[in-house]
Amino acid sequence: MKRTNIDRPSALVIELSPLIRTQALKVGMTFQDSALSLFQRVVALAKGYLRCDVVIDRYFEHSLKENLRCKRGVGSRYVFKNDIEIPSDFKDNFLMNSANKHDLGHYLAEKFTDFHSTTTNIPTFVCTHGNSILTNSNSLRNQTDINNCISEEADQRILRHAINCAKNAFERVEVLTVGTDVLMLVISYYSHLKSHNSSISVFCGTGLGTASIDYYNVRKIAAELGESILRLHQVRHCFYGFSKTKFWNSMMESTNKRTYVNVFQTLGSRPTTILPEQVQVLESYLLEVYYPNSEASSLDSERERPYVRLANSNIRQLPVSVRGLTEHIKRACFQAGWLWQEAVNNSTVQNPEEWDWILKDGRFVPNWQSNDGNIVDIHTAIQVCSNCKKTLCKKCKCKLTGMKCLPFCGCQRICPNK
After folding, report:
1. pTM for the full model?
2. CA neighbor of 12 nearest in space, from 36, 35, 44
């Protein structure tokens, strides 16, 4: 939908990162000139609004994102001062040093606050600054929901600021972001927004920083879905993505709809563990969606059948195993049930290691090793076992790694290692 006219007391919440990536920090400009250019863009977007909140994300040590950041390499730490020109290698090296994002966020928040003091285009201006905020509003400085936030990602913090706008009697709140994660969060927590202001209208624009922004009427979407469905959206989004309407429609049309919905709702509400029966329910769900004509009773059975038919033995084309599904559910659960809960409170998040993340060389990485410790190179196992003509299988890869031969291994049926 297109952006609608502003006809009521309205607030705007903007994620700054997309604008930084696409519209500022050009080589040769000073950091102050770039900050001013960014602020002018924010002012243009906020025209007609009574309040504008700018949210900047940041990096934490031992973050789940740190493994991705380390893949970028190691870069220099820059000094952000008004008269320093942006160096030619800034774009390539900026994210290679986590301190740069922290320092730039603080610099921009402070400059935006200075710039705002010389303009009256935005009556109330708020910008995140570490765990706290910088603002020209004395009353907002005392509101701890936005002035004491421990979230690393901008996603949760954007929702916090939207909720704060609702608490402060704004009848319309608009959120501008780049992707669909924030949209999903706003939809999931619409009832929370509504509890603070029953007449509130919420709009979310995605694609900020691109040629066009797509706007969604969150109030309308929430009404169409119904209260009972809203809260499962966050874990559903982590489980298979926002745009998978095929999966969503299949669940809504399934005779097992209530069972599926209950499991998703439970997994999105701070679970302490994943139960085997929950894995079985979601396994049935995937079989129903992906393989409606299959006679297989489990994903492992469905996975076994096509392996021997793959010309290049590309296991990525196979269905996920039950163990793989279990690990995926844990990731989705931790993201939706714990990390995204920071959108509404500052409660302590569980240790990622309790959800099968491993702290390795100072970084959290996913653990894909099964609980029994068995890891095997399937390609090698199949190649070796396929050439095993004897019944003893003393030298095959399976035997050497302490595993039983797989069902599709090419060894004899009477192999004792089956």
Report:
1. 0.80
2. 44
User: Rounded to the nearest 5 degrees, what angle is found at the Cα of 221, between the Cα atoms of 220 and 225?
Assistant: 120
Contacts of 382 (CB under 8 A, 6+ apart): 307, 313, 406, 408, 409, 410
Token pair, residue 41, equals 């863009």
- Residues in the chain, total: 418
CB 295 within 8 A of CB 287: no
Distance of alpha carbon 292 from the chain centroid: 29
**How far is it, in rounded angstroms, from Cα 353 to Cα 347?**
18
Is the predicted pLDDT of residue 285 greater than 90, yes or no? no
- pLDDT band, very low/low/confident/very high, at 135 (cuts 50, 70, 90): very high
Q: Which residue has the tokens 């250019």?
A: 37
**Token reading at 239:** 């489980």
φ, ψ of residue 163 to 5 degrees: the values are: -65, -40
Q: pLDDT tens digits, residue range 205-224?
A: 999 988 889 999 999 988 88
Averaged pLDDT of the chain: 80
Contacts of range 177-180, beta carbons closer than 8 Å, 24 or more positions apart: 177/15, 177/18, 177/204, 177/205, 177/206, 177/208, 178/15, 178/17, 178/18, 178/206, 178/207, 178/208, 178/209, 178/210, 179/206, 180/206, 180/237, 180/242, 180/243
Distance CA 279, CA 329 (A): 8
Q: Cβ distance 355 to 330 under 8 Å?
A: yes
Strand runs (DSSP E) across 9-77, as ranges? 10-15, 51-55
> Residue 14: what pLDDT?
97
What pLDDT score was predicted for residue 342? 75
Return the closest-CA partner of residue 158 out of 171, 167, 149: 149
Provide the token pair at 99: 């301190």
pLDDT digits (tens, 9 = 90+) for 43-74: 999 999 999 999 998 877 666 666 555 555 56
Q: What span, in angstroms and rounded, lies between the C-alpha atoms of 141 and 259?
A: 45
pLDDT of residue 374: 44
Which token pair is 394? 């003393």
pLDDT tens, position by position, 354-377: 888 887 777 777 776 655 444 444
CB neighbours of 44 closer than 8 A, spacing ≥ 6? none
C-alpha–C-alpha distance, residues 103 and 110, integer Å: 11
- In DSSP terms, 172 is beta-bridged to 10, 201
Structure-token pair, residue 184: 């999903």
Is 171 within 8 Å of 201 (Cβ atoms)?
yes
